[in-house]
Amino acid sequence: MKLSQFKFKVSDEQIAQYPRHYRDEARLLVLHRKNGEIEHMLVKDLVPLFGEGDLFIFNDTKVFPARMYAKKEKTLANIEVFLLRELNRDMRYWDVLVDPARKIRIGNKLFFDEESSIVAEVVDNTTSRGRTLRFLTDYVGEDFIKHLYAMGVTPLPKYIRRPMDEETLAAFKQEFHLADDEDLEQCVREIDEERYQSIFAKKIGAVAAPAACLHFSKQLLKRLEIQGVGHSFLTSHMALGNFKAVDVEDLTKHKVDSEQIAIPEELVQAVDTAHAKNTKVCAVGTEVMRALEHVVGTGGQLKVYDGWTNKFIFPPYDFTVANAFFVNFYPPQSSQLMMVAAFGGYENVMNAYRVALREGYRFGDYGDAMLILD
Protein backbone atom coordinates (compact mmCIF):
# COMPACT_ATOMS: atom_id res chain seq x y z
CA MET A 1 0.00 0.00 0.00
CA LYS A 2 0.96 3.62 -0.45
CA LEU A 3 1.27 6.50 2.01
CA SER A 4 -1.22 8.60 0.03
CA GLN A 5 -3.95 6.04 0.70
CA PHE A 6 -4.01 7.10 4.37
CA LYS A 7 -4.50 10.80 3.77
CA PHE A 8 -7.45 12.70 5.24
CA LYS A 9 -8.12 15.97 7.04
CA VAL A 10 -8.72 16.40 10.78
CA SER A 11 -9.78 19.82 11.98
CA ASP A 12 -8.04 21.38 14.98
CA GLU A 13 -11.38 21.30 16.81
CA GLN A 14 -11.43 17.48 16.69
CA ILE A 15 -8.02 17.06 18.34
CA ALA A 16 -8.72 16.57 22.04
CA GLN A 17 -7.02 19.17 24.22
CA TYR A 18 -8.04 17.72 27.59
CA PRO A 19 -9.32 14.38 28.94
CA ARG A 20 -12.89 13.51 29.83
CA HIS A 21 -13.88 13.94 33.47
CA TYR A 22 -14.12 10.16 33.82
CA ARG A 23 -11.71 7.89 31.96
CA ASP A 24 -14.34 5.48 30.68
CA GLU A 25 -16.79 8.12 29.41
CA ALA A 26 -15.00 8.71 26.14
CA ARG A 27 -17.00 7.80 23.06
CA LEU A 28 -16.42 4.39 21.51
CA LEU A 29 -16.87 3.43 17.86
CA VAL A 30 -17.25 -0.34 17.51
CA LEU A 31 -16.26 -1.74 14.12
CA HIS A 32 -17.20 -5.30 13.16
CA ARG A 33 -14.53 -6.22 10.67
CA LYS A 34 -16.32 -9.17 9.07
CA ASN A 35 -19.19 -7.06 7.73
CA GLY A 36 -18.03 -3.48 8.27
CA GLU A 37 -20.95 -2.62 10.56
CA ILE A 38 -20.47 0.24 13.03
CA GLU A 39 -21.96 0.88 16.46
CA HIS A 40 -21.67 3.96 18.68
CA MET A 41 -21.45 3.81 22.46
CA LEU A 42 -19.30 4.92 25.41
CA VAL A 43 -16.22 3.04 26.56
CA LYS A 44 -17.94 2.15 29.84
CA ASP A 45 -20.67 0.34 27.87
CA LEU A 46 -18.35 -2.22 26.20
CA VAL A 47 -18.73 -4.85 28.94
CA PRO A 48 -21.58 -6.83 27.25
CA LEU A 49 -19.37 -7.27 24.16
CA PHE A 50 -17.07 -9.59 26.14
CA GLY A 51 -17.66 -12.72 28.14
CA GLU A 52 -16.27 -15.54 30.25
CA GLY A 53 -12.67 -16.38 29.37
CA ASP A 54 -11.97 -13.33 27.20
CA LEU A 55 -8.67 -11.56 27.80
CA PHE A 56 -7.54 -7.93 27.64
CA ILE A 57 -3.81 -7.21 27.26
CA PHE A 58 -2.64 -3.86 28.66
CA ASN A 59 0.66 -2.00 28.69
CA ASP A 60 1.98 -1.35 32.21
CA THR A 61 4.63 1.19 31.17
CA LYS A 62 4.84 4.41 33.18
CA VAL A 63 5.49 7.83 31.68
CA PHE A 64 8.22 9.90 33.29
CA PRO A 65 8.27 13.74 33.30
CA ALA A 66 10.44 13.96 30.21
CA ARG A 67 9.97 17.61 29.22
CA MET A 68 12.34 20.04 30.96
CA TYR A 69 13.23 23.69 30.56
CA ALA A 70 16.73 25.14 30.87
CA LYS A 71 18.76 28.24 30.18
CA LYS A 72 21.90 28.22 28.10
CA GLU A 73 25.06 29.50 29.78
CA LYS A 74 26.05 33.14 29.12
CA THR A 75 23.17 33.98 26.71
CA LEU A 76 20.46 32.66 29.10
CA ALA A 77 18.45 31.60 26.05
CA ASN A 78 15.43 29.44 26.91
CA ILE A 79 15.93 25.83 25.81
CA GLU A 80 13.49 22.92 25.92
CA VAL A 81 15.15 19.61 26.78
CA PHE A 82 13.19 16.43 26.15
CA LEU A 83 14.62 13.37 27.89
CA LEU A 84 14.58 10.29 25.69
CA ARG A 85 16.67 7.58 27.30
CA GLU A 86 19.13 7.10 30.10
CA LEU A 87 22.42 5.79 28.70
CA ASN A 88 24.57 5.39 31.80
CA ARG A 89 23.32 5.75 35.38
CA ASP A 90 26.75 6.13 37.00
CA MET A 91 28.02 8.71 34.49
CA ARG A 92 24.59 10.38 34.20
CA TYR A 93 24.53 10.30 30.39
CA TRP A 94 21.17 10.84 28.64
CA ASP A 95 19.94 10.98 25.06
CA VAL A 96 17.74 14.06 24.65
CA LEU A 97 16.12 16.34 22.10
CA VAL A 98 16.73 20.08 22.34
CA ASP A 99 14.75 22.99 20.94
CA PRO A 100 15.89 25.27 19.40
CA ALA A 101 18.67 22.92 18.35
CA ARG A 102 20.71 25.42 16.34
CA LYS A 103 21.79 27.16 19.54
CA ILE A 104 23.10 24.04 21.28
CA ARG A 105 26.59 22.78 20.45
CA ILE A 106 29.06 20.36 22.00
CA GLY A 107 30.58 21.90 25.12
CA ASN A 108 27.59 24.13 25.94
CA LYS A 109 26.19 23.99 29.46
CA LEU A 110 22.51 24.12 30.38
CA PHE A 111 21.16 25.26 33.76
CA PHE A 112 17.85 23.96 35.09
CA ASP A 113 17.43 25.99 38.29
CA GLU A 114 18.78 29.13 39.89
CA GLU A 115 20.82 27.15 42.41
CA SER A 116 22.57 25.18 39.63
CA SER A 117 21.90 22.00 41.59
CA ILE A 118 21.76 20.15 38.28
CA VAL A 119 23.72 21.32 35.22
CA ALA A 120 24.04 19.52 31.89
CA GLU A 121 26.96 19.58 29.47
CA VAL A 122 26.46 18.71 25.80
CA VAL A 123 28.92 15.94 24.91
CA ASP A 124 27.66 14.78 21.50
CA ASN A 125 25.35 15.52 18.56
CA THR A 126 23.22 12.51 17.61
CA THR A 127 20.66 13.88 15.12
CA SER A 128 19.57 17.33 13.93
CA ARG A 129 17.77 17.86 17.24
CA GLY A 130 19.34 15.06 19.25
CA ARG A 131 22.10 15.55 21.79
CA THR A 132 23.84 13.48 24.45
CA LEU A 133 24.02 15.25 27.80
CA ARG A 134 26.18 14.56 30.81
CA PHE A 135 24.51 15.84 33.96
CA LEU A 136 26.80 17.52 36.48
CA THR A 137 25.53 17.35 40.06
CA ASP A 138 26.32 16.14 43.55
CA TYR A 139 23.26 13.87 43.44
CA VAL A 140 23.96 10.22 42.67
CA GLY A 141 21.95 7.13 41.72
CA GLU A 142 18.26 7.14 42.52
CA ASP A 143 18.63 10.46 44.34
CA PHE A 144 19.75 12.07 41.07
CA ILE A 145 16.84 10.54 39.14
CA LYS A 146 14.40 11.77 41.78
CA HIS A 147 15.66 15.36 41.52
CA LEU A 148 15.89 15.20 37.72
CA TYR A 149 12.27 14.10 37.40
CA ALA A 150 11.19 16.77 39.90
CA MET A 151 12.38 19.38 37.39
CA GLY A 152 10.41 17.87 34.52
CA VAL A 153 6.79 18.21 33.48
CA THR A 154 4.25 15.85 31.92
CA PRO A 155 5.32 15.28 28.28
CA LEU A 156 2.02 16.03 26.58
CA PRO A 157 2.15 15.70 22.78
CA LYS A 158 2.92 18.86 20.82
CA TYR A 159 -0.53 18.83 19.21
CA ILE A 160 -2.04 19.58 22.61
CA ARG A 161 -1.74 23.34 22.33
CA ARG A 162 -3.39 24.99 25.26
CA PRO A 163 -1.70 27.92 26.97
CA MET A 164 -2.93 28.64 30.46
CA ASP A 165 -5.36 31.26 29.19
CA GLU A 166 -8.98 31.92 30.19
CA GLU A 167 -10.37 29.62 27.49
CA THR A 168 -8.29 26.64 28.60
CA LEU A 169 -9.00 27.16 32.28
CA ALA A 170 -12.72 27.60 31.60
CA ALA A 171 -12.81 24.32 29.65
CA PHE A 172 -11.14 22.41 32.50
CA LYS A 173 -13.34 24.14 35.06
CA GLN A 174 -16.47 23.00 33.23
CA GLU A 175 -15.30 19.44 32.48
CA PHE A 176 -13.91 18.73 35.95
CA HIS A 177 -16.31 20.86 38.02
CA LEU A 178 -13.57 22.98 39.54
CA ALA A 179 -14.48 25.64 42.08
CA ASP A 180 -13.89 29.36 41.53
CA ASP A 181 -11.58 29.61 44.53
CA GLU A 182 -9.22 26.83 43.36
CA ASP A 183 -5.83 27.47 41.79
CA LEU A 184 -6.96 26.51 38.29
CA GLU A 185 -3.48 26.40 36.74
CA GLN A 186 -2.27 24.03 39.44
CA CYS A 187 -5.42 21.94 39.02
CA VAL A 188 -4.74 21.57 35.28
CA ARG A 189 -1.15 20.46 35.93
CA GLU A 190 -2.32 17.90 38.50
CA ILE A 191 -5.03 16.58 36.17
CA ASP A 192 -2.45 16.08 33.41
CA GLU A 193 -0.05 14.33 35.80
CA GLU A 194 -2.77 11.86 36.75
CA ARG A 195 -4.62 11.39 33.47
CA TYR A 196 -1.61 11.15 31.13
CA GLN A 197 -0.90 7.88 32.93
CA SER A 198 -2.88 4.64 32.95
CA ILE A 199 -4.29 3.34 36.23
CA PHE A 200 -1.92 0.37 36.03
CA ALA A 201 1.24 2.33 35.11
CA LYS A 202 4.03 0.56 36.96
CA LYS A 203 7.32 0.26 35.07
CA ILE A 204 8.83 3.67 34.36
CA GLY A 205 10.43 4.24 30.98
CA ALA A 206 7.97 5.82 28.52
CA VAL A 207 8.05 9.36 27.12
CA ALA A 208 4.51 9.08 25.76
CA ALA A 209 1.42 7.51 27.26
CA PRO A 210 -0.11 4.26 25.96
CA ALA A 211 -3.19 6.26 24.95
CA ALA A 212 -5.65 3.40 24.49
CA CYS A 213 -4.98 2.24 28.06
CA LEU A 214 -5.95 5.65 29.44
CA HIS A 215 -9.67 4.87 28.93
CA PHE A 216 -9.81 2.05 31.49
CA SER A 217 -10.97 2.86 35.01
CA LYS A 218 -10.97 0.69 38.13
CA GLN A 219 -14.76 0.51 37.90
CA LEU A 220 -14.66 -0.71 34.29
CA LEU A 221 -12.03 -3.36 35.09
CA LYS A 222 -14.14 -4.57 38.00
CA ARG A 223 -17.24 -4.87 35.82
CA LEU A 224 -15.26 -6.84 33.25
CA GLU A 225 -13.92 -9.08 36.01
CA ILE A 226 -17.47 -9.79 37.21
CA GLN A 227 -18.30 -10.71 33.61
CA GLY A 228 -15.51 -13.30 33.72
CA VAL A 229 -13.11 -11.29 31.56
CA GLY A 230 -9.43 -11.49 32.52
CA HIS A 231 -6.54 -9.16 31.89
CA SER A 232 -2.77 -9.39 31.70
CA PHE A 233 0.16 -7.07 31.01
CA LEU A 234 3.19 -6.58 28.87
CA THR A 235 5.62 -3.67 28.94
CA SER A 236 6.32 -1.48 25.94
CA HIS A 237 8.18 1.73 26.72
CA MET A 238 6.72 4.26 24.31
CA ALA A 239 9.45 6.30 22.60
CA LEU A 240 9.12 9.29 20.30
CA GLY A 241 10.35 7.18 17.41
CA ASN A 242 7.02 5.40 17.48
CA PHE A 243 5.46 8.64 16.24
CA LYS A 244 8.01 9.41 13.55
CA ALA A 245 6.29 10.62 10.40
CA VAL A 246 6.09 8.22 7.50
CA ASP A 247 7.71 10.16 4.66
CA VAL A 248 8.02 7.57 1.89
CA GLU A 249 5.21 6.70 -0.52
CA ASP A 250 6.29 3.06 -0.65
CA LEU A 251 5.53 1.75 2.84
CA THR A 252 7.96 -1.15 2.47
CA LYS A 253 10.79 1.40 2.64
CA HIS A 254 9.74 3.01 5.94
CA LYS A 255 11.89 2.24 8.99
CA VAL A 256 10.75 2.70 12.57
CA ASP A 257 12.91 3.26 15.63
CA SER A 258 13.32 0.50 18.19
CA GLU A 259 11.40 0.37 21.45
CA GLN A 260 12.05 -1.72 24.54
CA ILE A 261 9.47 -4.41 25.28
CA ALA A 262 9.00 -7.24 27.76
CA ILE A 263 6.62 -10.22 27.53
CA PRO A 264 6.32 -12.04 30.89
CA GLU A 265 5.52 -15.70 31.43
CA GLU A 266 2.15 -14.85 33.02
CA LEU A 267 1.00 -13.22 29.78
CA VAL A 268 2.17 -16.17 27.68
CA GLN A 269 0.15 -18.53 29.87
CA ALA A 270 -2.92 -16.28 29.79
CA VAL A 271 -2.83 -16.10 25.98
CA ASP A 272 -2.34 -19.88 25.68
CA THR A 273 -5.40 -20.42 27.88
CA ALA A 274 -7.53 -17.99 25.84
CA HIS A 275 -6.45 -19.59 22.57
CA ALA A 276 -7.22 -23.06 23.92
CA LYS A 277 -10.74 -21.90 24.83
CA ASN A 278 -11.14 -20.00 21.53
CA THR A 279 -12.11 -16.79 23.35
CA LYS A 280 -11.39 -13.17 22.55
CA VAL A 281 -7.89 -11.76 23.04
CA CYS A 282 -8.04 -7.96 22.91
CA ALA A 283 -4.84 -5.97 22.43
CA VAL A 284 -5.21 -2.52 23.99
CA GLY A 285 -3.11 -0.08 21.97
CA THR A 286 -0.89 -0.33 18.92
CA GLU A 287 2.24 -0.74 21.01
CA VAL A 288 0.72 -3.83 22.65
CA MET A 289 -0.19 -5.31 19.27
CA ARG A 290 3.27 -4.61 17.88
CA ALA A 291 4.97 -6.26 20.87
CA LEU A 292 2.78 -9.35 20.55
CA GLU A 293 3.44 -9.71 16.84
CA HIS A 294 7.18 -9.19 17.28
CA VAL A 295 7.45 -12.05 19.75
CA VAL A 296 5.01 -14.63 18.36
CA GLY A 297 6.59 -17.67 16.71
CA THR A 298 5.81 -19.16 13.32
CA GLY A 299 3.38 -21.60 14.92
CA GLY A 300 1.40 -18.82 16.59
CA GLN A 301 2.98 -19.47 19.99
CA LEU A 302 3.74 -16.40 22.13
CA LYS A 303 7.14 -16.44 23.84
CA VAL A 304 8.71 -14.84 26.90
CA TYR A 305 10.87 -11.95 25.71
CA ASP A 306 12.86 -9.01 27.04
CA GLY A 307 14.46 -6.85 24.37
CA TRP A 308 13.69 -4.46 21.54
CA THR A 309 11.39 -4.25 18.53
CA ASN A 310 11.34 -2.14 15.39
CA LYS A 311 8.48 -4.01 13.74
CA PHE A 312 6.37 -1.97 11.31
CA ILE A 313 2.92 -3.38 10.57
CA PHE A 314 0.87 -2.22 7.59
CA PRO A 315 -1.63 -3.85 5.20
CA PRO A 316 -1.71 -6.62 4.26
CA TYR A 317 -0.74 -8.47 7.43
CA ASP A 318 -1.94 -11.66 9.15
CA PHE A 319 -2.29 -11.27 12.92
CA THR A 320 -1.75 -14.36 15.04
CA VAL A 321 -2.27 -13.43 18.72
CA ALA A 322 -5.14 -10.96 19.18
CA ASN A 323 -8.56 -11.15 17.53
CA ALA A 324 -9.85 -7.87 18.98
CA PHE A 325 -8.21 -4.46 19.00
CA PHE A 326 -8.94 -1.42 21.23
CA VAL A 327 -7.31 1.77 19.98
CA ASN A 328 -7.56 5.55 19.86
CA PHE A 329 -8.10 7.63 16.71
CA TYR A 330 -4.76 8.38 15.08
CA PRO A 331 -3.50 11.11 12.74
CA PRO A 332 -3.59 10.70 8.96
CA GLN A 333 -0.64 8.89 7.39
CA SER A 334 0.58 7.66 10.79
CA SER A 335 2.13 4.24 11.38
CA GLN A 336 -0.50 3.58 14.07
CA LEU A 337 -3.35 4.12 11.60
CA MET A 338 -1.67 1.74 9.16
CA MET A 339 -1.54 -1.00 11.80
CA VAL A 340 -5.22 -0.46 12.62
CA ALA A 341 -6.08 -0.70 8.91
CA ALA A 342 -4.08 -3.93 8.66
CA PHE A 343 -6.16 -5.45 11.47
CA GLY A 344 -9.61 -4.12 10.63
CA GLY A 345 -9.29 -4.07 6.86
CA TYR A 346 -8.32 -0.98 4.90
CA GLU A 347 -11.77 -0.17 3.51
CA ASN A 348 -13.51 -0.85 6.84
CA VAL A 349 -11.15 1.31 8.86
CA MET A 350 -11.02 4.23 6.46
CA ASN A 351 -14.83 4.22 6.29
CA ALA A 352 -14.95 4.13 10.11
CA TYR A 353 -12.65 7.15 10.19
CA ARG A 354 -14.94 9.01 7.77
CA VAL A 355 -17.87 8.24 10.08
CA ALA A 356 -15.87 9.30 13.15
CA LEU A 357 -14.97 12.62 11.54
CA ARG A 358 -18.56 13.24 10.53
CA GLU A 359 -19.87 12.32 14.00
CA GLY A 360 -17.37 14.54 15.82
CA TYR A 361 -15.22 11.92 17.53
CA ARG A 362 -12.12 13.34 19.21
CA PHE A 363 -8.64 12.39 17.98
CA GLY A 364 -5.34 12.09 19.85
CA ASP A 365 -4.11 10.80 23.21
CA TYR A 366 -6.94 12.48 25.12
CA GLY A 367 -9.49 11.56 22.45
CA ASP A 368 -12.10 8.89 21.86
CA ALA A 369 -11.66 5.20 21.09
CA MET A 370 -12.35 2.47 18.55
CA LEU A 371 -12.92 -1.22 19.23
CA ILE A 372 -12.50 -3.68 16.35
CA LEU A 373 -14.17 -7.07 16.68
CA ASP A 374 -14.92 -9.93 14.29
Q: What is this structure, in a nutshell?
A:
By secondary structure, the chain is an alpha/beta fold. It is 24% helix and 25% strand.
CATH-derived topology of the largest domain? QueA-like
Please identify the oligomeric state.
single chain
Q: Mean pLDDT, nearest integer?
A: 94
In the residues, how many domains can be counted? 2
Q: Give the low-pLDDT segments.
A: none
Percentage of residues in DSSP E strands: 25-35%
Question: Regarding CATH, which class of the largest domain?
Answer: Alpha Beta
**Total of DSSP H or I helical runs spanning 4+ residues:** 8
* Strand numbers in spatial order across the main sheet: 2-1-17-16-14-3-12-13-15
- In angstroms, what is the radius of gyration? 21 Å
Number of strands: 17
CATH architecture of the largest domain: 3-Layer(aba) Sandwich
Q: SS-based structural class?
A: alpha/beta
Helix % is 10-25%
Question: How far apart are the first and last residues' alpha carbons, in Å?
Answer: 23 Å
Question: Which structural traits does this protein have?
Answer:
single chain, 374 residues, alpha/beta, QueA-like, Thrombin, subunit H, 2 domains, nine-stranded mixed sheet, six-stranded antiparallel β-barrel, 24% helix, 25% strand
Question: Care to describe what's here?
Answer:
Helix content is 24%, strand content 25%. By secondary structure, it is α/β, with parallel strands linked by helices. It folds into two domains: 3-63 and 196-373, 3-Layer(aba) Sandwich (QueA-like), CATH 3.40.1780.10; 67-150, Beta Barrel (Thrombin, subunit H), CATH 2.40.10. Strands 2-1-17-16-14-3-12-13-15 form a nine-stranded mixed sheet, with helices on one face. Strand 6 and strand 7 form a beta hairpin. The protein is globular, with a radius of gyration of 21 Å.
